[in-house]
Structures are given as structure tokens and as C-alpha cells.
Amino acid sequence: MIQNPFKSLRFRIFLLVFFTGILSCFAIHFAIIESYEDRAVSVRESEVSTQLMILANHLINYSYFSDTTSEVINAELDLLANLYDGRVMVIDDNLRIRKDTYGISDGKIIISEEVVRCLKKGTTGTTAAYDKNNGYIEMTAPITESLTYESGDVAPFMDVKQDVVRGVVLISVSTDNISATMDILTRRAVTIEIIAVILILVLAWWMSGKLLRPFDKITASISNIKLGLSNDPIEASNYLETEHIIQAFNQLLAKMNALDASRQEFVSNVSHELKTPITSMKVLADSLIAEENVPNEVYKDFMIDIGAEVDRENQIINDLLELVKMDKKAVDLNISSVDIVAMMEVILKRLRPIARKHNIELTLETTREITAEIDEVKLSLALMNLVENAVKYNKDDGYVRVKLDADHQYFTCEISDSGIGIPEDSLDKIYERFYRVDKSRSREIGGTGLGLAITHRAILMHRGTIEVESQEDVGTTFTVKIPLIYMQSFE
Q1: I need a surface site. Which of 181, 211, 428, 459 has the fewest CB within 10 A?
Q2: First and final C-alpha spacing in the chain
Q3: pLDDT tens for residues 468-487?
Q4: Domains of the chain by start residue, with CATH
Q5: Cα separations in angstroms, 324 against 313, 319, 456
Q6: 98-157 tens-digit pLDDT
């Protein structure tokens, strides 16, 4: 079967670690490259700005606009253009190009937003614009002349200084060397990133396996338990999540072991209980075969005994079948609205003939009508078992009292007797299958040891409770509490 790798926790952890590492590498790569480019451009602009301001002062000092043939200024302009592998233009206040180091625009008019802005009065300092696509920086610097007016020319009793913009120096600086350096850095970064990706790939695979190793151990342990190679609890892990899984599984394993032990004990008990009547019938039959000229009266007695053993075997089988049915989920209950008082009167009517044989008083006490949503067959059987036990394990001239009562949520059935009682150390075992407090008397009255197990299961299926109080040679009281409205379980 082809499995979807995206359902694998290991594959998901691998992808998480891998892509986290890759994204981190890319983030660092672009951050460094972009940071270098911004820093390099900023440094270049700062250098050129200083050179432009010096050049602008020289242009004023040498009266360059009056004489553009100055060898010193022209040499300085050419040097600046060559130094930065760019182009320098000197523009006067009429937007006319007075000097172009390329020698192709001398005397022409230039219309440029940066130049016009720089010529405005009061504009100081340089401006710069970086064109990344074309690979150059364009910068402008005002050519400013400071003029001094004597007292009286502008304002009386004081000299006034005023800066006048005579022109603009426009330079285009190539950024090819910055781009070349970035290319070198990019190639080196890519090489490092490829190595890093390989290392991250290996690390991600190793970490995914390392992180899931406790889960692999759990899987192996569960497989060993499933194959029957081990039945020991799984050892605890260092991970909090796996500890929770292990604790839950160990609890389930303990419950399964307990159920398995109970099943084995149940099978052993069933085998023993079913074998006993057969053994008795075999002994009786062998005795008849071994005897010659057996009187009819003896045959009749033996056949009566064999018939009793057959009835006993049949009763055990019927109880087992009933218990198996009740082991199914509660959705199998046939719920209907039932008159509990009338149901209990029918139960007592059936059992009064047995009670009369030992002169046992059998009474029902109730103060109100009670209607509940129950499975009448199953709950009737459960309550009949309790009343029948109270009669069978009673004393001659004793009593069995049944009391019914209800509130707004539950109805209560209390069954008390004056019987032989249950030892305190047996109270927590009476609902176990085939458990008998007095085995000799149970066999004498035909008990199978399954009645209380059936009763307990039927009451639990109705979401009810059963409690018992008993004292030896004094009597026993069972208290059953059942909801008036049946609530379906969604387990």
C-alpha cells in the first residue's frame, strides 16, 4: 500500500526544520546584500557630495562662469569625472550647460527638475538620486557666491551678506564597481548557502529521526505486545507528550490484562460449572449400568436425580446466554414507559409460592405511583433475582420487605430480608460471575452464581446504581436506584 508521506510526523518535522533553515538563509542573504548596497551607495554619495562642494567653491573662486577656459578647473572637472567613472556638467543660472566632461552638450539648455530645484534661492547642500536599474547616482550641488553689501546699500548702519546661486554642478556617478562587488558577494553567498542547505538537509533529517525516536520505541513495544512477545508496561519517556501516551497505554494494557485474567477465570469457572452436572449424570448412569436387577423405584430415583442435573445444566446455560446478551452495549435496550409498582407486584406474585414453603412474609410498600423509562424485561429480571435471593437465603418464618419510592429524578427499590447475611469480606465480590458466598447452600437451592452478575449488569445498563448492606445472621438490604428518564450514552 502506497502511504501518503504528508501524513508522516517525521516528514512534517523534516519539512519544518528544513524550510525554517532555508528561509533563515534567504533572509540573511538578502539582508546582507541589500545592507551592503545601501551602505555602499551612501558612502559613495557622501564622498561625491564633499567633492562637489569643494568643486563649487573653486568655480566661484576662479570666476569660472566668466572664463570657462581655466585649465585648473577643467582639469579638476576631468579628474572628478574619471575618478568616479562618470560625467560632470557645470550649469549656469540660465540652465545653460557651460561645461560637459563628455564634450557633447556644451552650450545647450538642460531642463531637469533636480537642477531647477537646486537653483532656487535658499537651497543649500547636495541632492542625490540612485538609479538602481541603470547603475548610476545622479547628484547636484549649488554653486553659491556670498555677496556683501555695505551699510546704506541695503540697510543703514550695517553690512549685509547674501548667498546667491550662480549655477549647479551636476554629476552622474557610475555604480559598476558596487554592482561588481555585489556580484562577487552574491556568488560567495550562494556557495555558502548551497553548503548550508546540504547541512540543513542532513540536520533536518537527523533531527526528525532523533525527535521521533521515543515514538518509534513506543511503536516497537506495542508491536511486541500485539505479537505476544511481551506483556510488560512501556517504560516512561523524557518527552511530556510521550509520557502521556505511555501512561494512557499502560492503563489500557493493565485493563486488558485484567480483562484477560477475568476471561480466563470465567472460562475456567464456566467449564467447571458445566462439567459438574454432566459428571453427576455420568456417575448416576454408570451406577445404574453396573447394577443388575435394579428395582423400578431405584431407577425412578436415579432418573429424578438425572433430570434435576439436566435442569441445573439448562439453568446455567440460560443464565450464561442472558449474561452474554447484557454484555452488549446499552443501545440494545428496549426502552419503554413502565409502571414500576405494577411490575414489582407481578414479580412478588411469582415468588410468593416459594416464600410460603418456608413461611416467609413477602410484602411491598409504596406511597405513590411510579413510572419510568426502562427495559422491562431486563430490569424485571434483575429485581426478581434480588427478591428471589432474599427468599432463598432466608430463614424459616422470616420476612422480605420491598419498598418503592421516587423523587423528581430517580426511583428507588429497597429489598431487605431477615436472612443469613453476607460476610463483610465477600461484599465486594458478590457481583463476580460464579462467585458464591455459601457454595454448599447455593448448590442445594440450585444457584448458578450468575444471578447477581446479571442484576449488576442490567442496573448499570440503565445508568443506575446498586448498594448492599449486610450483617451475618441478621439480614441483607439491597438498594437499587434507577433514573426515571433513560439517557442514551454516546460513548
Answers
A1: 428
A2: 32
A3: 999 988 899 999 999 999 87
A4: 5-181 (3.30.450.20), 328-483 (3.30.565.10)
A5: 17, 9, 13
A6: 999 998 888 899 888 888 888 875 556 788 888 888 888 999 989 888 777 665 555 555
